Amino acid sequence: MSVLVASDTLSLSLNQLQIDQLVVSQQQFFNSGVTRSYAFRKAQLNVLKKAIQRREKDIIHALHQDLRKNEFEAYGTEIGFIYTDIRHTLNHLHQWMQTKRVATPIMFWPGSSRIVHDPLGTVLIISPWNYPFQLLIAPLIAAIAGGNTAILKPSELAPATEAVLSALIEETFEPEYIAIIKGPGQLLGPQLIERHHLDHIFYTGSTQVGRIIMQHAARQLTPVTLELGGKSPCIVDETADIVWAAKKIAWGKFINAGQTCVAPDYVLVHENVKDKLVEAIKHQLQKMYGNDAQKSPDYPRIINQRRLNTLAGYLDEQVVVICGGKTDAADLYMEPTLVEVNEAEHPLWHDEIFGPILLIRSYKTADELFEVINVNPYPLAFYLFTKNRHFERELTEKIRFGGGCINNTLVHLGNPDLPFGGTGYSGMGQYHGYEGFRTFTRPKSIMKTSTWIDAPLWYPPVKSWYVNVLKKLMK
Ligand code: NAD
Fold first, then answer.
1. How confident is the model over 351-362, as a mean pLDDT?
2. Which pLDDT band holds residue 240 (cuts at 50, 70, 90)?
3. Which of 197, 246, 355, 440 has the fewest C-beta atoms under 10 angstroms from its C-beta?
4. What is the CB-side half-sphere exposure of residue 95 using CA atoms within 13 A?
5. Are 112 and 217 found together in one domain?
6. Residue 190: its pLDDT value, please?
7. 56 given a catalytic annotation
8. Any idea what the CATH number is for the domain that residue 73 is in?
9. 303, 222, 221: which is closest to 259 by C-alpha?
10. Which of the four pLDDT bands, split at 50, 70 and 90, describes residue 13?
């Protein structure tokens, strides 16, 4: 049995016992050493890929049920993304696993030094609902590549995908290797994270819950990777190609109805090109979704009523709606919306919007830009549209952000050679490609000394000439 249901409807002790047994069985399996070999990791990655291929239709269907993603979007941003990740990992894993030889200081000669990429052990992966398939499986790929066992916790807020994930994992892996726990995340802290020393927690979700996870993890000194959210700025200067910028912003913002952690949250546009940009974005929205986005098969829905209420609640009397703003609660629909808000204290300037509302504000000087961005420091992503290289260098150097694009949005995620992760409030640690392997392994340092010669000056009694030799060796 690889599926344990942690919910209020089950007795705590039963849950607790099952969870405790699961952790022990994974630790024993890890300690058996089976997960360490290259052959095992490679085989499991292939097994995972085949299982996903078998379930591809179910996954696409589930993503449509949970978020009304069309097949193209579901494949491109979730399933295809994972196939590419597995292929990249398989192509490089052998090389990543190689022991690295490093130099040995002369005073330790004759000897050799090496760094081994050691698997961590039993890891926990917790994922959110917005890309509910990809954000659970991508870290799992890295965990398998690292030679670990894994406990997975998908989001309960995307129930159709959660069900497919659970079936897929259950039919593919033995629970002592990879298991899935379903249910409300808040039970995980007391029932799993605080009770057991896991070897790593890889968490993707809100900054708010990230803080809680870190508190739970502190109890067992369990290391964490936190992939969090934040308000990602998008800057358009006077020199930018405005039609290009509008296309990329509209695409990056409204894909998945704005429910993307790296979506542009607000646009700061130079005052001389603001009207042009607004018109170009409106035009692009019309081209992408027609006159009524609700009728477009390509426009997703909000995950649930609570989130829709939050988003609709932002549009109060202080907000100037440039276009959009319509909602339909029965259909969990919110129209692609462009707004302006002058009040600096308005929640739209402080909350991560995480929905189809794009906030636009004009600026005059670069100083003004820094002022606005520093209200919400450490964004997960940063986007700049410009032809001015000096401006590009200035901004990318001075602003601290997780990752970003010049003259595009979101696409930095698609390059497995670019580490992905946040900084400060948007998270800690990285993954994708080699960085994922690094996150799920640790460098173990080993120095080996030959036994055929031994310098006398290691040992007392100290002779008068020892210190001169030492000074020559250690300078
Ligand atoms: P969330 O933090 O509410 O939930 C994420 C996961 O954590 C879920 O599986 C949930 O069950 C679990 N959880 C909730 N409370 C928990 C607790 N106390 N202990 C342990 N687990 C708990 O996030 P969400 O609403 O699902 O996702 C939206 C957020 O995720 C946004 O802020 C978004 O920016 C962020 N996000 C970040 C990335 C990234 O890669 N950095 C990607 C996607 C989403």
1. 98
2. very high
3. 197
4. 7
5. yes
6. 86
7. no
8. 3.40.605.10
9. 303
10. very low
- Considering the domain architecture, whether residues 249 and 166 belong to the same structural domain is answered as no
262: Cβ below 6 Å to ligand 1? no
CATH number at residue 249: 3.40.309.10
> How far, in Å, from the CA of 472 to the mean position of ligand 1?
56
- Examine residue 455 and state whether it is found in any structural domain, yes or no: no
Torsion angle of C-alpha atoms 466, 468, 474, 475, degrees rounded to 10: 170
Q: How far is the CA of 229 from the centre of ligand 1 (A)?
A: 9
Whether residue 91 sits in one domain with residue 12: yes
pLDDT above 70 for 1: no
Is-catalytic flag, 323? no
Do residues 114 and 181 both lie within one domain? yes
Q: With a 6 A CB cut-off, is 212 part of the ligand 1 pocket? A: yes
Exposed / middle / buried, residue 315 (Cβ in 10 Å: 0-12, 13-18, 19+): buried
Compute, in angstroms, the gap from residue 4 CA to the centroid of ligand 1: 20
pLDDT bucket at 9, cuts 50 / 70 / 90: low
With a cut of 80, say whether residue 231 has pLDDT above it: yes
Residues 6+ apart with CB under 8 A from 223: 199, 200, 201, 217
Same domain, 363 and 342: yes
By alpha-carbon position, which residue is closest to atom 17 of ligand 1? 186
pLDDT band per the 50, 70, 90 thresholds, residue 230: confident
Going by alpha carbons, the residue nearest to atom 12 of ligand 1 is 185
Q: Which atom of ligand 1 is nearest to the CA of 422?
A: 41
- The two structure tokens encoding residue 134: 């990809």
User: How many angstroms separate the alpha carbon of residue 34 from the centre of ligand 1?
Assistant: 32
* pLDDT score of 241: 98
Q: For 262-285, what is each residue's pLDDT tens digit?
A: 999 999 999 999 999 999 999 999
Total number of domains constituting the chain: 2
| Cβ of 402 less than 6 Å from ligand 1 | no
How far CA 340 is from CA of 153, 262, 263, 316, 329, in Å, comes to: 38, 21, 18, 11, 23
- The whole domain housing 56 covers 3-228+427-444
Ligand 1 neighbour 127 (Cβ under 6 A): yes
Is there a single domain that holds both residue 352 and residue 395? Answer: yes
